[in-house]
Amino acid sequence: QVQLVESGGGLVQAGASLRLSCAASGRTLSSYVVGWFRQAPGKEREFVAAISRSGDSTTYADSVKGRFTISRDNAKNTVYLQMNSLKPEDTAIYYCASGLSITSWTGEYVYWGQGTQVTVSS
To answer: Per residue in 46-66, pLDDT tens?
Structure first.
């Protein structure tokens, strides 16, 4: 089993940057694909980005492509989401999750963190 804890969220102005972290305990995170998802009030949870076990393959939602970068440091058992040029529509609770396949489908991810709030003001 893997326990995931997100951190790094906060309140920022449009155009600013934030870096989210997803730290794992229990089994080593290098055994898993890791994805970032987000959920805004009144909306369904949506895929943001995912990274392969080794970090050599990544995929992004079109809405964040070119602004967000997912990376991982397996020695630190941590995955990051660097978010640049933030927009008010990026406001949401951001979750990390671990799974076995690099995919945008939430059903493929087994372990989930509790989330971290990101709020972008205009």
So the answer is: 999 999 999 999 999 999 999
The predicted structure's pLDDT at residue 118 = 98
Residues 8, 78, 70, 117, CA torsion sign: negative
Residue 33, φ and ψ in degrees, nearest 5:
-70, 145
Report residues of the chain scoring pLDDT below 70: none
Whole-number Å distance between alpha carbons of 63 and 77: 27
* Sign of torsion over alpha carbons 24, 113, 21, 33: positive
Q: Which amino acid is at 86?
A: L
Strands 46-51 and 109-112: unpaired
Task: Return d(Cα 73, Cα 51) in angstroms, integer.
Answer: 11
Radius of gyration of the chain (CA): 13
Which residues have CB under 8 Å from 53's CB, separation 6+? Answer: 30, 31, 32, 33
Given a contact cutoff of 8 angstroms between Cβ atoms, the answer to whether 14 and 88 are in contact is yes
> What tokens were used for 32?
């898993």
